[in-house]
Amino acid sequence: MSNKKAPEQVTDRLFATERNPEDFRFDASVARVFPDMIRRSVPGYTTIIPMIEVITEQYVQPGTHCYDLGCSLGASTLAMRHGIPHPDCTLVGVDNSEAMIERCEHYVALDDHDLPVTLRCEDILTTELSTASVTTLNFTLQFVPPAERLSLLTRIGQATVPGGVLILSEKIRFGSDTEQAVQTHLHHEFKRANGYSDLEISQKRAAIENVMIPETLADHKARLEQAGFDQVLVWYQCFNFVSMLAIKAP
């Protein structure tokens, strides 16, 4: 039995006081509060994670690789792990934040499952991909520069075996200004209901607007098809957060 202790669960107060404007970074301070931050900021996150396990179990193929790209603390990685029934599969989590990977290692070690997990502190734009049956980008692509997104998805598409899938979760924007305003308002109300103040909401939005660039659902679907996936469907949506399943034909 591992003697490692789980990383401390800390309440997100990063933007609770006035601070100098700076771009959002996945550094040690964010890693420390990340579980609380994402639970209180992303509607449906606690539904999406267990469903990644369900989807993985349906599409994983023996002898293939499974990837969690932008794995952060490994919530999606562990969901995939529990959905993989084949001992000859390889599960890989990739993140370019050393602070995230370090904490992810603790969560993986504490998880009660025999399937090995390989963690790479690498750029997902250049990490090696091959023979993939299930790949997850769980709120990751939105932080990739728009000009680099097609190249990344094309690499994933080329690495995906027939019948394999990509699970893509993203914050989206809407073509209609009216719908955008309504969905943004509801998202902010979700944050307020979870205890975030107006100051926290405002400062977080200012910090993240230059590094997280959302796109429309139509943009995502068109790009996924261009990247080599044959069917793209939305399996979950709450306000301006969606999760898509991109399927490569058998």
From TrEMBL:
InterPro entries: CmoA (IPR005271), Methyltransf_25 (IPR041698), SAM-dependent_MTases_sf (IPR029063). S-adenosyl-L-methionine binds at residues 45, 70-72, 95-96, 123-124, 138, 205. Its EC number is 2.1.3.-. Homodimer. Belongs to the class I-like SAM-binding methyltransferase superfamily. Cx-SAM synthase family. The gene is cmoA. It comes from Marinobacter daepoensis. Residues 68-164 form the Methyltransferase domain. This is Carboxy-S-adenosyl-L-methionine synthase. Catalyzes the conversion of S-adenosyl-L-methionine (SAM) to carboxy-S-adenosyl-L-methionine (Cx-SAM). It comes from the Bacteria. The keyword Transferase applies. The keyword Cytoplasm does not apply. HAMAP family: Cx_SAM_synthase. It is an enzyme of class 2 (transferase). Gene3D superfamilies: Vaccinia Virus protein VP39. Keywords: S-adenosyl-L-methionine, Transferase. It catalyses: prephenate + S-adenosyl-L-methionine = carboxy-S-adenosyl-L-methionine + 3-phenylpyruvate + H2O. SUPFAM superfamilies: S-adenosyl-L-methionine-dependent methyltransferases. The lineage of its organism: Bacteria, Pseudomonadati, Pseudomonadota, Gammaproteobacteria, Pseudomonadales. Pfam families: Methyltransf_25 (PF13649).
